Amino acid sequence: MPDDSPASFLDTPVPEGWDCNLLDDLVDADRGISYGIVQPGKHDDAGVPIVRVNNLRNGRIETNDVLRVSTTIEEKYARTRLRGGEVLLSLVGTLGECAVVPPELRGWNVARAVAVIPIRSDIDPRWVTTCLRSAPLQHLIRTWATTTVQATFNLRDVRRLPIVIPPTATREWMTKVLGMLDDKIELNRRMNELLEGMARAYFKAWFVNFEPVKAKAGGATSFPGMPQPVFDRLPDTFVDSEFGEVPEGWNTGRLGDVIEVHDRRRIPLSKKQRQERRGQIPYYGATGVIDYVDEPIFDGIHVLLGEDGSVVRDDGTPFVQYVWGRYWVNNHAHVLSGANGFGNEHLYLLLQLADIRPFVTGAVQAKLNQKNMCSLPVVIPQTSFLNAFQSIIEPWFSLVRALSDQSTVLVQTRETLLPRLVSGEVAVPATNGGGDG
Question: Which of 193, 236, 214 is nearest to 407 (CA)?
Answer without folding.
Answer: 193
